[in-house]
Amino acid sequence: MFEILFLGTSASAPSAKRGLSGQIVSHNEYRFLIDCGEGTQRQILQSGIGFKRLTRILLTHGHLDHILGLGGLLSTFLRWEAIDELEIFGGRQTLDRVHTLLYDVVLRGNQPPMPLKMNEIKAGTFFEAEDFTVTAFPVTHKGPDCLGYLFEEKARRPFLAEKADALGVPFGPERRELVAGNAVTLPDGKRVTPDDVLGPVERGSKFILVGDAGKTDNLLEVCKDADGLVIESTYLDEEADMAKQFSHLTARMGAELALKAGVKKLILTHISRRYREKDVLAEAQSVFPNTVVARDFDNYQIKREMQDGYR
User: Which pLDDT does position 104 carry in this prediction?
Assistant: First the structure.
């Protein structure tokens, strides 16, 4: 299961109720800050999630409404908060702009208060934990190096506790060994194999996050069968020509992508101040009913949908 906390959901400029782009994606002990618009540090504090373990920042692209908050965040780390290290991931030109912001404007010849790494990434898997991966994929927007991110749990065989109980497998290391794929011998001499207590292979949760985008046809394959899709919705269909001019999406375009890709849940963000939220929602739901419009501090869980509901 993945969780996403929205820190900022406005497009281009903040509004009275919406900050600029920023989300925290969590999986167990791991946290990833996706984009860092102006004011993100305050949103982190106001959300109550704090800065602990917030050591990885993934950037979708280098536009100021997605990176300007990095200056304030580093300033906070200089004076008030302490973390062990900070890694920033993004395309080459995005990182070049971030480097200028942090080293020329904020630090100005001083050293960062923690090891600071700038990690250039391209399309492909760049982070792997024991049970999930993070993969970057190209997104079409103004300028090069625009990326989206795929969070995906690794396939696994579920542990069938009722079968283990029937075979007399005690709680503790024996069950851990079986989950790890190793056979065990019980105190009475009975040998139990993983096939005795593990079910068929199941895929894990699949979660897609897209920043600013100007088209969706190149996103169809990566979004296929996703349990959750977060994507921008800067315009309504009535201003589709303007959306195309500025390389953004309409609510209808995001919904049509979700429908074609077989997405389970669509979450729209990057909402322009020119529209009412209910109008954005209505346009998307007319195409894809399981749509929500994110607000600042909304928190969603992304789980794999089973035939009999969510696990």
Answer: 96
> Residue 310 has what pLDDT?
31
Is there a single domain that holds both residue 187 and residue 100?
A: no
65 in catalytic set: yes
Task: Check whether residue 79 and residue 109 sit in a common domain.
Answer: yes
Q: Same domain, yes or no, for 79 and 165?
A: no
The span from the CA of 21 to the CA of 95, in Å, is 17
Name the strand (E) or helix (H) holding 127: strand 124-128
Question: Are 145 and 90 spatial neighbours (Cβ–Cβ below 8 Å)?
Answer: yes
What pLDDT is stored for residue 157 in this prediction? 85
Contact 94, 122 (CB under 8 A): no
Q: Both 42 and 123 in a single domain?
A: yes
Closest by CA to 35, choosing from 16, 61, 71, is 61
pLDDT at 309: 33
In a domain, 310, yes or no: no
309 in any annotated domain: no
> Is residue 113 located within the same domain as residue 216?
yes
Q: What is the dihedral of CA 19, 22, 26, 29, to 10 degrees?
A: -100
Q: Model confidence over 165-194: pLDDT tens digits?
A: 999 999 999 999 998 889 999 999 999 998
Residues of the chain with pLDDT under 50: 306-311
234 contacts 271 by C-beta, under 8 angstroms: yes
Other CB atoms within 10 A of residue 57 CB = 23
Per-residue pLDDT, 252 = 98
**Which residue among 35, 65, 145, 296 is the active-site one?**
65
* Domain region containing 193: 161-197
Contacts of 130 (CB under 8 A, 6+ apart): none
Count up the domains in the chain and report the number: 2
Are 85 and 140 in a shared domain?
Answer: yes
